[in-house]
Design a protein that fits this description.
The structure is a homodimer of 230-residue chains. The first copy, chain A, has 230 residues and is α/β, with parallel strands linked by helices. The first copy, chain A, has helices spanning 5-10, 42-53, 68-78, 93-101, 122-135, 175-181, 193-201, 219-229; strands at residues 12-19, 36-37, 40-41, 58-63, 85-88, 108-114, 137-143, 147-151, 156-159, 164-167, 171-174, 206-208.
Amino acid sequence: MIIDFEVMQILQNAVIIVSGGSGSRMQSEVPKQYMDVNGKAILVWTVEKFLAFDPQIFIVLVLADGHQDFWNPIKNRFFREREFIMARGGESRFDSVKSGLEMIKDDCIVGIHDAVRPMVSIETIKRCYDSAREFGSAIPVIDVEDTIRSVGAQNSNQVNRENLKRVQTPQVFAAHQIKEAYRQSYTIEFTDDATVYERKFNSVKLVEGNPENIKITKPVDLKILSILLS
Amino acid sequence: MIIDFEVMQILQNAVIIVSGGSGSRMQSEVPKQYMDVNGKAILVWTVEKFLAFDPQIFIVLVLADGHQDFWNPIKNRFFREREFIMARGGESRFDSVKSGLEMIKDDCIVGIHDAVRPMVSIETIKRCYDSAREFGSAIPVIDVEDTIRSVGAQNSNQVNRENLKRVQTPQVFAAHQIKEAYRQSYTIEFTDDATVYERKFNSVKLVEGNPENIKITKPVDLKILSILLS
């Protein structure tokens, strides 16, 4: 399937929000994406960012088995009038994304975003979708601030951090391409969507992310998020 | 100068606390190391960690020109009975450390620590000094949690983050060795003390750091520090 540039301009935006994690690192019964921070579940903050970017965006929510009970009250309270397409999370992130992509039409621009990254900026989202519309792919990256060493069996060496970037989400693609890429068999190198995509299409486009776009994984991250939101 | 293993065991601990920064990233008149967080200046929290590790530790404080006015009231309030050796900060971090090393005797174990890393754990400090006593050097490192890409002129590639480590301070050394290393002429690759040391002595020993040991550089870091301290 070939989609030319002019068609790309009018393709609808879609996003797959991957919310499959069980939150084992949080020492909590409630998975982290459903935890309340400053009055709303983290997942609500995340969804609102994409709605602010494009109120018409097509949203697929990939939920882990049994998480419907966490989601339903959120849906009723914050998004009563809104349609969400639900997909079922798999064993791995790869399986969960694949499950979400089954709900996506070929002729759209689709982002894949971690439910636990509520601090993505609307500007970052826009840069990613604009760039994916033009180039077929876009992932947000930021500078590495720490001094970094590469560790080998015998020794370690300082790495020039100016050549390194930290990768965030949303990772955004021409839907027909990322769907094709996800038909490949899983390999251990597939650590994010960009690695799946570039195995098939050779490269991904990098765009500027925003440093606040942290992934909420540890208890202290909840407190940091609370500060960033206020 | 050769110092054998048995002598190493009884060498005194020393630390150079490098407090030369002018805090231009903080949008503030007060340099960040003197800012109050939870009732004490950041520099006080930092110094207290080293005193908790070893009450007898020899402390050299490298201050930027004009910062004596920030330091004097801190000294009077928190460390009235304590001796600090003062050294004058230079143009660059390399110059500042060199200035501090002039105050250090050859026969001790010396750590070099950023004043704005108050969350170093006492366990991290102990691991570094124990290891430097045994091997001549030790720097604390922690895992990289983000997905990392290496960016080239034409393309970018995912890097296996299991081979990467984030480097912290204190970086700790046999004093006679690090002093000898700092007699080398400055080159742009000297981004921390470990790179200066290993240019002369080939390698540095890595030990486990602690993730909370963040470097306070941006306004939001002050709020994160406040959470970590409480």
